[in-house]
Amino acid sequence: MTLELSLNQQPAHARQGSSIGQPLTRRDGFLKVTGAARYAADNHPPGMLYAVLAVSSIARGRVASLDVEAAKAHKGVVEVMTPQNRPALAADPDAKDHPFMFRLDLLQNDQVRYPNQSIAVVIAETLEAATEGAALLSPRYEVLPARVGLDGAESFVPRGVGVGGPAVQHKGDVEAGLKSAKTRIEATYETPAQYHNAMEPHAIVVAWDGDTLSIDTPSQGLAMAQGRIAGLFGIAPENVHIRSPFLGGGFGSKGMISGPQILGILAARLVGRPVKLVLRREQMYGPVGHRAPTRQTLRMGMDGEGRLTALDHHAKTTSSTFDDFFEPAADASHTLYASPAIATSHDAVRLDTGTPLFMRAPGEATGSIALESAIDEAAYACGMDPLEFRLRNYAEVEPMTGKPFSSKALRECYRQAAETFGWASRPLQPRLMRDADGFLTGWGMGTATFPAIMFQAEARAVLKADGSGVMETGAQDMGQGAWTAFAQIAADGLGLDIDQVDFRAGSSDLPNAGIAGGSGHTATAGMAIHNAGAAVIARLADLATGDEASPLYGAGNEGVLARGGRLYRRDDESRGESYAEILTRAGLTEIEGHGKGAPDPASQENYAKHAHGAVFAEVKVDPDFGQIRVTRLVGAFAAGRVINPRLVRSQYYGGMIWGVSFALHEEAITDRRSGRIQNANLAEYHVPVNADVPSVEALLVHEDDPHVNALGIKGVGEIGITGTAGAVANAVWHATGVRPRRFPIRIEDLLG
Amino acid sequence: MRDFSYLRANSLDAARQAAALPGAMLLAGGTTLIDLAKCGVAEPDSLVDITHLTGLNSIDVNERGATIGALARMGHVADHADIKSRFPAISEALWQAASAQIRNMATIGGNLMQRTRCPYFRDPMNFPACNKREPGSGCSAMGGVTRGHAVLGTSDACIAMYPGDLAVALVAFDAIVHLGERQIPVDDFFLLPGTTPDKEHAIEPGEMITAIEIPGTAAARRSTYLKIRDRQSYEFAAASAAVGIEFEADGRTIRDLRVALGGVATKPWRARAVEDALKGKGLEPDAVRAASLLAIQGAVDHGANHYKIELAPRVVARAILRLGETA
Ligand SMILES: Cc1cc2nc3c(=O)[nH]c(=O)nc-3n(C[C@H](O)[C@H](O)[C@H](O)COP(=O)(O)OP(=O)(O)OC[C@H]3O[C@@H](n4cnc5c(N)ncnc54)[C@H](O)[C@@H]3O)c2cc1C
Ligand code: SF4
To answer: Which CATH architecture has domain A40-144+205-278?
Structure first.
């Protein structure tokens, strides 16, 4: 299947010892830069038709009529799928069996609950005909007023936030802590709705063969997608074959299979031919998730030494009217700063939008920008340097739970990043630094943190009589380089050179690799790979140590080492033999082993597990124009074992740039009358361009973590956005004396 | 997308004839037109591809001025050595526009003809009311999202901003648009919305921009284009200014001053009041700042775009003072 992967074996690198820790370049890099990588929408099975969504103009109401005849009369249009003729499903798209199951809009009725909701699908011989057919449907609506904005409906306290954590938590007495404080601050910050905007739109190419489905679609969670599709269509999961060899980014929006992707499958069923459905950019603003806006209020009290006496973090957010996902922004205050009293709480309103979803550190990023801004304000109120203030409130145990950290090298992160940045010469007062061109210059910092999460994953390892190995797991590479890191773990797990390992991934036919999300993919699937390798090596060792003809005879499992395609006696490395010799003598063409990756319940119970980091930012602000430029970012991160420093650094760079994006660029702007987003395109929904990111440095701080998992891996995908967004905001304050209260920070906020 | 026919014109006359037919549109780099066709604003019956016409992409610069063919690419003009030395504002306006990829595709003629970024204009499916698209249908922008809309030259019918950069510099330096034989000052080429916002240019069916001519002046030689925006690149102007200065022999007294604004008006906006206020004077910073306020005389905001009224005069003042520094 994944021929592409085997094509690009890394040439043997000049390296010593293991693959883990080597800065290998991405295995998919060559294919991507040469255009050879085949993304989902590049597929074109024989007889394929094009499906195009018709989506709602309105935010709320019902579709009163669709001119299906006009669409069908257009040359090339084959069929129009509406609630009237949509094939039956085996499950209700509005059912929700567990928090990870999201309600989908699959033409179950004529109701409209958000703008850009699918209201019909036009299937045609060409993309152009389907597009025109969709336009010809000329829907008429019965319109109800749109509920828009953080004050657009009555608020309530959700039952759970994020993946079901309590909406309200506390320890100690916050009000008493505030009362006893010598210094107090209270501050409110607003963050906007943001959309994932992966470069590759959601796309699906699907063919039915009886009750078997062949699907090409980008997915961050193949097994979950397979299960969801099987459930909706009432077929066995093994009948659903999904290939997802390359993703053009996901950021959470491809974690769950979305409504439009399922509509592609329904369209193929309706017409009895293969179908391709690709979302247009503007259609990604609705049915595939987003980050909900927040309004956060923080209250802090400090004693005479600048120690927190109380920390209160409240976040208001939004969800859709028909499903639950609540950005757990206030939870950011659970883990970072020591305080005898901490309270976090959320409330929410239900709006006529698509359902929000996990996006680039959901809750962590949103909460971090508010928390780090407030910490900066608190430090200033105490007359303290922001780094000194953070060190004064350094959490030796997890503040909310009192659990010890499995490892925490944050002090070292602060030290290294501050030194590299040159923080020591920063004046305490704002608006004191100017550069030669007269730009106001500011320095700000933020603490980064992200939980070390693990899901469940499986892998299968094979050793062959020719001495080579195979490692299989349905892992997803979103562009972060997962397959390179996994191949490195596989090589070490199998005791082989990486060039001798055929690493296979990206298909639902392979063992379930869990989800590429929560920054937990490397730890989870990596552990499955590691354990599968260990299992097959153990079998091999059994064969050798039980075979009188082997130099390893009698060494026992514990007494054997695997390296470079050979087993050695641990007590005498001069005695060993190759895998090929062992298998050939045993008359076996191959042996296999299976492994799982999952969190360890005991360490889960006993330890708080987080990656940490410190980010320092320099900004320059034009004093007349309020134009902000980030000129320097330095981050130092400690996130357990580094599998591949090149890839890890790239993840930090990417995360930090997303932090700049959060602070200065990203915002979905809603027309309050219609509820429609008015910048649903990449010309006007801004992310940083190269020119916005002049200098980024990411330092890798060594950290051994014996508790997170046997490999010591935490996670690096999302931590970079946390800390950075706040650091930029704080630098803007330091440059200008104006405290940013809403994000992104715009010219007009600083015009004065 | 509606079906349309495609014609590759092989002579100027053939192009003009084909383009005169109802439903026909000229296709140059396509970076505006294809976008507008995708969002349903442009619904051509036929596209007349002019990119294969010869002789329309030259860039000629001499003592009298510059003549730039309508098919010259933005990127080429921006990088042209003589344009850079004799018309810095033109080069700067171009390289700060769009992205490198777009500048490699887009032509000078197409650039002048780009349409507004008003999100309501660009979304006919969801916002039928737009006087620019459908005269008399109303304006969806008023009362909606207006951060990018104009504060100068607006009318009750339309407040859409002219987004281009190059034309701002052209207006400052009295460029002439060549429509074949017919020639028209660029300031007259762009029309105010008034009651007919659908009519944006003084160009008739069957006419085509063939070249732009920019008189060579001392002010053009000492000129700059200052563009302010949230993002460092690939963004339209929040406010911009094209400025050129010529000093008297004393090197201090302003003999000629050119000021035009972008990002704030319904058409490229010449600010003659600022010019007149400063001509014959020296570059005294406070006087420059005070005079620059004349740039936004008569400005009207629509809520979120109010900041442009604050910003624009500051951009003008900075551009003028910066040119003075290089004296
Ligand atoms: C994302 C994005 C960002 C951009 N940012 C900027 C920016 O910051 N600043 C800026 O100035 N511009 C910007 N642009 C606009 C860009 O400069 C224009 O799209 C481009 O200049 C158009 O040139 P073209 O040759 O591609 O025109 P086309 O798309 O081919 O044509 C545009 C229009 O002009 C007509 N036309 C073309 N040639 C002629 C002619 N010779 N005579 C008469 N009519 C003609 C066409 O019929 C059509 O109506 C941006 C565009 C995009 C898509
Ligand atoms: S501002 Fe002009 S272009 Fe925009 S909606 Fe109103 S009339 Fe149309």
So the answer is: Alpha-Beta Complex (3.90)
